[in-house]
Design goal:
Shape: globular
Strand content: under 5%
Strand order of the largest sheet: 1-2
Number of helices: 14
Radius of gyration: 23 Å
Distance between the termini: 55 Å
Largest sheet: 2 strands, antiparallel
Length: 445
């Protein structure tokens, strides 16, 4: 493989691995902040023990997530120097703000939260974890505004063979970036909700700290239900802006090859990756895809055949990733609703089947997040800045395939080790209750 292919593979590996940690950090910080707030308001020690237990898991995930994120930024200078030269004036601004503002705020107050127990007031301590949660989400905002500019470039001019910013406000208010932020952050909330529900269910079925884990489960179920519904709503608006600003990606997402009006929506479809014929599918609802794309059932959707072959994204990967993500999103709403209704009626102990299955569902929201990024990044190809700068033009000229091979192998081994450490620590501390003792062997039938 050449340096371009290897560099793309390396960035995909590091980005995908880093994003294993990000969603849980986004969501779990909010849940822990809410738990501590409940403790401050009620004085109920159970909420305090919940805060400490889930906070420990949050810190493990946060620490390893920081390590995996640092290496990504180095790749812009080492593997993607031509890209950095071309858009550094624009892309560097939000990343600099993220590092100097959001990340510093996050790091400062997470230190206060870790070491501030019994040293500052309860209210001040609760405020510190809320600031961590806000800063974590702000960090995601700046990164996603940068990515949103790559997806829909705004507020720039091409001058001296590079893109230069002329309107920072345009990038700051780019609707693509904000919708991407909403979709990504809410997806992280779903990850955290299923993470908490799965671990709580494991303890409830073993009759360990029943009250504490039933509260955790009920809180996470409500959080997951609200978040999964909002993900679906924001996702609809996100798909609409993709149809408007990235028509080739949208056509690949739905495997639409011919330009046509009043396009039906077919959930069950076999994509035709060669484009020799339209996709084979069951009869769909007439005009529904056009309505989803432009909120007009008679709207025209450009087919993939209207784009040059070298400007079409990989169809099968984009299509399957989008369809799988959509199915999982619908499943999360249904599961969260069932879990919330059962928990609200205090029926968890009489629902052993639900409790048994919930721990096995923890990986699914993680998978959905990865699929979403596959749609976003693979579907954008062959562009690194959509419609402006191709990925093949962004790779560094000075690196060789051997150098990238060496760093790719090194990163993969290092990240594999970190992944093992993360799973080991999270599993170890999740299995232990708030007091660090494994639950008794008694189980719910």
């Amino acid at each position: 493989m050449d340096a371009l292919t290897l560099s793309r593979l390396q960035f995909a590996v590091t980005a995908a691995f880093h994003f294993i940690f990000v969603p849980l950090t986004l969501g779990l910080s909010m849940l822990v902040a809410f738990m501590e707030t409940r403790y401050v308001r009620t004085g109920d020690e159970t909420w305090l023990r919940m805060t400490r237990f889930w906070g420990k898991l949050f810190l493990i995930n946060f620490a390893l997530g920081v390590v995996t994120g640092i290496t990504m930024e180095f790749q812009f200078g080492m593997n993607w120097a031509e890209y950095s030269k071309y858009v550094g004036d624009i892309f560097g601004a939000p990343l600099a703000i993220e590092a100097t503002a959001a990340f510093f705020l996050e790091s400062t107050f997470i230190g206060i939260w870790i070491f501030g127990w019994d040293k500052i007031s309860k209210k001040a301590h609760a405020v510190s974890i809320w600031l961590v949660a806000v800063a974590t989400n702000l960090s995601a905002l700046w990164i996603l505004l940068a990515n949103g500019w790559m997806q829909k470039p705004v507020g720039y001019v091409l001058r001296n063979n590079r893109a230069e910013m002329v309107d920072f406000g345009a990038m700051l208010t780019n609707p693509y970036g904000w919708l991407k932020f909403g979709h990504t952050v809410l997806s992280g909330y779903v990850v955290a909700a299923f993470f908490v529900m799965g671990i709580a269910a494991w303890h409830i079925i073993r009759r360990n700290e029943i009250d504490l884990f039933k509260r955790s489960f009920r809180l996470a179920a409500g959080f997951g239900l609200a978040s999964s519904i909002l993900v679906f709503i924001v996702g609809d608006f996100h798909a609409a802006i993709v149809a408007q600003s990235q028509p080739a990606k949208f056509a690949a997402m739905e495997s639409v090859w011919e330009t046509q009006k009043s396009v039906p929506y077919n959930m069950l479809v076999v994509p035709d990756v060669e484009g020799e014929r339209n996709s084979v599918s069951a009869a769909g609802v007439p005009g529904l895809l056009s309505f989803f794309a432009f909120h007009d059932s008679d709207a025209e959707i450009r087919g993939l055949k209207s784009f040059p072959k070298d400007e079409r994204p990989p169809v099968l990967a984009t299509f399957l990733s989008f369809r799988s993500m959509l199915v999982l999103g619908i499943a999360f709403m249904a599961i969260s609703l069932a879990a919330y209704l059962i928990a609200r009626k205090d029926g968890l102990e009489s629902s052993p089947n639900l409790l048994r299955v919930m721990p096995w569902l923890i990986p699914l929201p993680y998978l959905a997040c990865q699929l979403g990024w596959l749609v976003a990044e693979v579907g954008r190809q062959p562009w690194i800045v959509y419609g402006v700068f191709k990925t093949s033009d962004g790779v560094s000229k000075a690196i060789s395939s051997g150098q990238v091979w060496a760093s790719l192998i090194g990163f993969t081994l290092f990240y594999g080790f970190l992944g093992f450490v993360d799973i080991y620590l999270l599993t170890k501390h999740s299995r232990k209750g708030p007091d660090g003792i494994l639950p008794a062997t008694a189980r719910i039938a």
